[in-house]
Structures are given as structure tokens and as C-alpha cells.
Specification:
By secondary structure, this protein is of the alpha/beta class. The chain folds into 2 domains: 23-165 and 209-277, Alpha/Beta hydrolase fold, catalytic domain (Rossmann fold), CATH 3.40.50; 166-204, no CATH class. The protein has 11 helices and 8 strands. It has helices spanning 3-18, 69-83, 107-119, 121-125, 139-147, 166-174, 182-191, 198-203, 227-241, 261-264, 266-277; strands at residues 28-36, 39-47, 52-59, 89-95, 128-137, 156-159, 217-222, 249-254. The chain has an 8-stranded mixed beta sheet, with helices on both faces. The chain is globular. The model is unreliable at 4-20 (pLDDT under 50).
Length: 279
């Protein structure tokens, strides 16, 4: 075997290892473990045929146990894809962890996925990333709202975002009025009771993140959502509406539908698509 042949073979191997996962112009759906700044998280990628893409990054709702998060990420991707009228957008669904984490600690994983799409996805997938939008449901809505205080994107959609008020929620549990949740139990084991340390609970509530939005945001809220959500929704809406340092904020409140309003209401789907297409 000549030296020239060996050198050519090495170049071919190196090229094969660095090229994108799929040929140009290929549509595919795949699960990928990505890393940004030392934080790893799994994402489900649904890529259209085109290679220059706007990207919708979506975040699932609470499932508590990590063995469920990949299913949740796939289901959330399907939900957003079903209402999205465009077929030329890539959807990246983030399987962020929950198990044994305090509420909000998985923001690091949510952020890693966003920054990976912004800074590394183009090279790793062999695509050109154009606009980036965030979409989240329930706890996913909580995460995209918080991300909007950290990083600018082309727009954010939050459906039924929460928990809005962990003081109220966890106080009901402490008083025995509702069944205990893992989220409140972890907070209590870490910070003590709400009576002893209410600030720790408030700091992780979405009511603590109602200003400084760096991008336009659409909040969708079904008015038949749970009493816990609706108890704090008017206060959250009022605080966000009073924000003096936010980009454009829109609220869509829908009677007759519950927590999954964005995916159940034809009106919500129209507003969702109009929001994306206007940016």
C-alpha cells in the first residue's frame, strides 16, 4: 500500500466522520444527544427536505420521571407539527430532564438546546439555520418564558405556562388540601416549609419572571384550565402587561378549553401560525 493511497484513505475517513448525518436535501426524524458548554441533553429533530431552515424548538410538559421524557418530546413534536401550517420548518423537541431536579434547575438543559441550535446545529447537521422560535407547553411554557429573559430569538409561544405560583401550589399541599407532588416535596426537603422560607418558592415561580422579555411572546391560556393555574393567571397577566422593558406581548385567552388549549382550539392554531409568519 503506497503512502499516497494511505494518505488519501485517511482523508476519506476524516471527511466521513465530519460530514452531516444525512445527505443534503433529505427529510428525516432522529434523536440526537447534543452538548453545549458541558451540558448534555437529548433532542428529537424533525428536519424537512430543505437544508436552509427556520427552526421551532419545543419543550414538553411535566412528566416527572425521566424514562418518560423521550416519549413526551416526541408527542410534543407531533402536537406542534400538527398545528404548524408550514412544512419547511425544522422542529427540535427537547427531552429535558425532570427527575430529582428542583423546579427550574432544568433551565440549564433547555438553554443548552437553544444555544446548540444557534451555534452548532448548522455545522453538525449540515444545514443553514435562519430564524429560531421557541414553543412550550405547561412546564415547557415555563421554560421558554424564562429563556426569553436570557436570550433573544425570533419569537416565543407559551401554552398554559406554569407553575405560576409555587407558594400557592405547595401551600395547598402542606395544608393537606391537595395531594403531595414530587416538585413541592423536593422544594420542602431543600428549603423547608413555605411558612419558614416563602422567598425560595417565589424565586422559582413564573410570577418571578414577568419582565425583561428579549423577544416577542405569545401566551395561550385555556380558561377551563385547573383551579391552581387559574388562581394566579390574572396576576401573571397583569404583571406581564405592566412590563416596561419587554418586547411585544400577546395574550390569547380561550373559553371552553383547558390546559392543552393551543392544541385543541382552531382559533389558537390560527393565532399561532400568524404569530410565526409575521416574524
Amino acid at each position: 500500500m503506497t503512502r499516497l493511497y494511505c494518505f488519501s484513505l485517511i482523508l476519506l475517513i476524516l471527511w466521513s466522520c465530519t460530514k452531516s448525518e444525512s445527505p443534503a436535501g433529505t427529510a428525516y426524524r432522529t434523536t440526537k444527544n447534543i452538548s453545549y458548554n458541558g451540558v448534555n441533553v437529548n433532542v428529537v429533530i424533525d428536519k424537512p427536505q430543505n437544508d436552509a431552515v427556520d427552526v421551532l424548538i419545543v419543550y414538553h410538559g411535566t412528566v416527572t420521571f425521566d424514562y418518560k421524557i423521550l416519549d413526551a418530546a416526541n408527542n410534543t413534536l407531533d402536537g406542534f407539527k400538527r398545528i404548524l401550517l408550514r412544512t419547511d420548518m425544522m422542529i427540535v423537541s427537547v427531552a429535558y430532564p425532570e427527575e430529582n431536579l428542583l423546579m427550574g434547575d432544568n433551565l440549564l438543559h433547555a438553554e443548552a438546546a437553544l444555544l446548540w441550535v444557534k451555534n452548532k446545529a448548522g455545522q453538525e447537521l449540515g444545514i443553514t439555520v435562519k430564524k429560531i422560535f421557541l414553543g412550550g407547553h405547561s412546564q415547557g411554557g415555563y421554560l421558554v418564558t424564562r429563556l426569553n429573559t436570557l436570550h433573544p430569538t425570533d419569537g416565543v409561544i407559551a401554552n398554559g405556562p406554569g407553575p405560576l405560583n409555587l407558594i400557592y401550589r405547595c401551600q395547598l399541599e402542606e395544608n393537606g388540601q391537595i395531594q403531595n407532588s414530587i416538585a413541592c416535596t423536593l422544594l420542602k426537603n431543600t428549603y423547608g416549609t413555605i411558612t419558614a422560607n416563602p422567598d425560595a418558592y417565589f424565586q422559582r415561580s413564573l410570577l418571578n419572571f414577568t419582565n425583561g422579555f428579549k423577544s416577542d411572546i405569545l401566551f395561550v391560556q385555556g380558561l377551563n384550565d385547573s383551579p391552581i393555574q387559574m388562581y394566579s393567571w390574572p396576576v401573571f397577566k397583569q404583571d406581564v402587561s405592566a412590563c416596561a422593558n419587554c418586547q411585544d406581548v400577546q395574550f390569547l385567552e380561550l373559553p371552553g378549553v383547558g390546559h392543552a388549549a393551543l392544541f385543541e382550539s382552531a382559533q389558537a392554531a390560527v393565532v399561532f401560525n400568524d404569530f410565526i409568519n409575521a416574524r
